Amino acid sequence: MTGGSEGVRCLLMRGGTSKGAYFLADDLPADPAARDELLLRVMGSPDERQIDGLGGAHPLTSKVAVVSPSADPRADVDYLFLQVAVDRAEVTDRQNCGNILAGVGPFAVERGLVPAGEERTAVRIRMVNTGDHATAVFPTPGGRVRYSGDAEISGVPGTAAPVVIEFPPGEHPLLPTGSTLDVVADTPVTCVDNGMPTVLVAATELKVTGYETPKDLEENLALAERLRAIRLAAGRLMGLGDVSAATVPKLTLLAPPRDGGAITTRTFIPVRCHTSIGVLGAASVAAGLRVEGGVGEDLARLRPGDDRVRIEHPTGFLDIESGIGADAAGRPVARRTAVVRTARKIFDGTVFPRSAETAPLPARPQGGQG
């Protein structure tokens, strides 16, 4: 399918604390450049209001999931996540999104890629961006996806049916630099990757408390320059190369908890400060807090013998089940990661992209994961 003024089949869904457009791969152009050009027109980018498309004028509401049957025997479907920039003609596949992931299982059932169970359905998902896997389990009474329920997640009003997402241990190192503590741009950090390359930094090292609002942090120009220097240096150290045009690694500022959780966080994605925290970013934070000698060791309040880590963020909290162990060489490795999210179908129909004659061509970041 080439997509165009005749319209493209699309399902708009809230996944976790994000919102995105979900497509079958067969309903989009096979050529990545043509696909990205179409998605820019669908989402209304570049425009800070995205007034002429589906986008919601924020990175958290300008996301796309492309889903297809998987040839991987360990998966039912493949999920490619694409971040569509708001104010730039850019589409990138250099990261995963664990919130949009929450809607992939229900979408796969809605589109007939996976048959629904009579009570609940498990969908095995390969995340194309990194090659990692996840299994999403959600209620399907009578063979239909149920979106209503009593699960509540911070950052989303009301309640919905739970989507339990379990992540098997990844094949990449939990500590990409091989060290529990590195100094980059004169700042102690712990670089961790438990599904999302993340740099953990004590907020006080950057002359902030870690309890500021996202708006206040975004307006701190000195902080922005410091974060940029840390991210560029850490990206190279983590083997990601030049990350100046990439959305990874994420930077998470850590502070002691205030509301009974394990840690307080402020996460940059990479310039805007997240109003909550991404699922995969939270998985990396939770594992990083358990690394002996890491920057979070003296800040976190972990309960002995309890795998649950409550991560506080600007609009509430996110609970992660996280356990780590050691490999034969004594290096820390993730053993178990699971999270409860929710998803809701908003509309299912045809989206009509704006005219190709009025849309700028997309810029494709070079290199990275994918």
* Distance N to C terminus: 22 Å
- CATH topology of the largest domain, what is it called? Diaminopimelate Epimerase, Chain A, domain 1
Q: Strand count, sense and closure of the main sheet?
A: 8 strands, mixed, barrel
Bulk shape: globular
CATH H-level homologous superfamily name of the largest domain:
Diaminopimelate Epimerase, Chain A, domain 1
| CATH architecture field of the largest domain | Roll
Structural class: alpha+beta
Number of strands: 16
Any idea what the radius of gyration is?
Answer: 20 Å
Order of helices and strands: EEHEEEHHEEEEEEHHEEHEEE
Classified by CATH, the class of the largest domain is Alpha Beta
Overall helicity: 10-25%
GO molecular function: isomerase activity
Keywords: Isomerase
Pfam families: PrpF
InterPro entries: OMA_tautomer-like, PrpF-like
Question: How would you explain this protein's 3D organization?
Answer:
This protein is α+β, with helices and mostly antiparallel strands and 370 residues long. It folds into two domains: 168 residues, Diaminopimelate Epimerase, Chain A, domain 1, CATH 3.10.310; 149 residues, Diaminopimelate Epimerase, Chain A, domain 1 (Roll), CATH 3.10.310.10. The protein is built from six helices and 16 strands. The chain has an eight-stranded mixed beta barrel. Strand 13, helix 6 and strand 14 form a beta-alpha-beta unit. The protein is globular, with a radius of gyration of 20 Å. The chain starts with 7 loop residues before the first strand and ends in a 19-residue tail after the last strand. The C terminus is likely disordered.
